[in-house]
Design a protein that fits this description.
With 150 residues, the protein is mainly α. It is elongated, with a radius of gyration of 18 Å. The protein is 77% helix and 0% strand. α2 runs parallel beside α6 and α4 crosses α5. It has one domain.
């Protein structure tokens, strides 16, 4: 039962904030393979849930509040955001999501740019794998062992 609760904790944290999930898995004493599988599974579970939940929320919202065309006011932040999105597309958002954004925010941003859900899932999966391997590599490089102390 204790192992199940540890796995559930890592899954839920990875589904919301990926770096916290991987760090929690390291601190709970999982081995490298378990860290990879559990944290990436939790991250992808978060991506799938938020992707389809956002679609449902938008359907309900547009049912009660139809789309209206109104002029857009551009600020410096919006201009930088548009430049970033045009330059890096979904790849930039997926690359930054595990370490900078939370999984819901990154998934919603990716869904607002790309309408192909399978492409979003594939790109997010690649980004999650990359960051999980980087974090585990840093753990191994600096020989972090939670049982002996940091």
């Amino acid at each position: 039962m204790e192992y199940f609760l540890k796995v559930l904790t890592v899954l839920l944290w990875s589904g919301f904030k990926f770096v916290v999930g991987v760090s929690t898995a390291i601190l709970l004493g999982f081995n490298q393979f378990e860290i990879l599988v559990i944290s990436i599974s939790g991250g992808m579970l978060g991506v799938v849930v938020y992707l389809y939940l956002w679609e449902l929320i938008l359907k309900i919202y547009h049912k009660f509040y139809p789309k209206k065309i109104k002029p857009i006011k551009f600020s410096k932040f919006k201009r930088k955001l548009v430049v970033f999105i045009r330059k890096y597309e979904v790849y930039g958002i997926a690359f930054l999501t595990p370490v900078l954004f939370s999984m819901p925010l990154g998934t919603i941003l990716a869904a607002s740019i790309e309408h192909n859900k399978w492409r979003i899932k594939l790109i997010m999966f690649g980004a999650l794998c990359f960051w999980a391997l980087v974090i585990i590599g840093v753990k191994l490089l600096f020989k972090v062992d939670p049982e002996k102390g940091l």
